């Protein structure tokens, strides 16, 4: 009974399925053909999972470490070595073209000025410095002091050759100093048959008698015969009409007699019997022969 009941149910189900299939077949429309779109290229992200490396669903992916960019290393700035400087120690100092006083002078620098040292002379006596407008000059080492290290300063290159030593000009003859007195009358004879007299005047610039000096008389052998003082006033003579008017006064007189040697005589002004350095040119010669024609001799000296 029960089996028949199951068979009826199965049969009904089969009939229903077949009926549904037939109905669906009749109602399906003919499909309209559609245009298949052209495929477009989609770039794959760089971090997309590659085939074979797919992380299972639900699994936790380990974080990928992000590399830290390296900190750039700073390039060290080279430290400039300290430079030596020459500091002027005197009021004014010559800067020369080379390490010697024979070189020409480029200019002068003053106390306290500083100049960079760039070289030295072979004898270590001079410093080569940076001078004005990029030029180089030389200063004498004893007239400056050095600031900074100077032990590594090298001997300068291209030191100019010494200029030729100038030929000294011949010395100018030094004129002899003018003597304080000059001769204004050379020995002038006034005839008189008597003991020879040498008279005359020692005058100042204005023609007045100049006292305190001496007139020395010496002979041709250089022997001093007399040293007579010139007075501060004139003596007057007016007994010899043959004497010109300008011979009528004098302030010194020297006598020659037969005791004196005949020959040529000379006269000169001196300061004193002790100091007989000539103060005037030598007047003469005048001749004395200790006979009647000896005459009188007038010799005048005047201050310059």
Summarize the topology.
Blueprint: H1 2-27, E1 85-88, E2 92-96, E3 105-110, E4 114-120, E5 126-130, E6 136-140, E7 144-147, E8 181-190, E9 197-200, E10 202-203, E11 213-219, E12 224-230, E13 235-236, E14 249-250, E15 252-255, E16 263-270, E17 283-288, E18 296-303
Parallel strand pairs: 9-18, 10-18
Antiparallel strand pairs: 1-4, 1-7, 2-3, 4-5, 5-6, 8-18, 9-15, 11-12, 11-16, 13-14, 16-17
Description:
The protein has 304 residues and is mainly beta. It is built from one helix and 18 strands. A five-stranded antiparallel beta sheet has the order 6-5-4-1-7, with no helix packed on it. Strands 8, 9, 10, 15 and 18 form a five-stranded mixed beta sheet that branches. A hairpin with an 8-residue loop joins strand 2 and strand 3 (105-110). The model has no long low-confidence stretch (mean pLDDT 79).
Roughly how many Å is the radius of gyration?
68 Å
**Pairing-aware structural class of the strands and helices?**
mainly beta
Estimate what percentage of residues fall within beta strands. 25-35%
Fold-level CATH name of the domain at 181-303: Immunoglobulin-like
Describe this protein with a few key phrases:
304 residues, mainly beta, SH3 type barrels, Immunoglobulin-like, five-stranded antiparallel sheet
Gist of the model:
By secondary structure, the chain is mainly β.
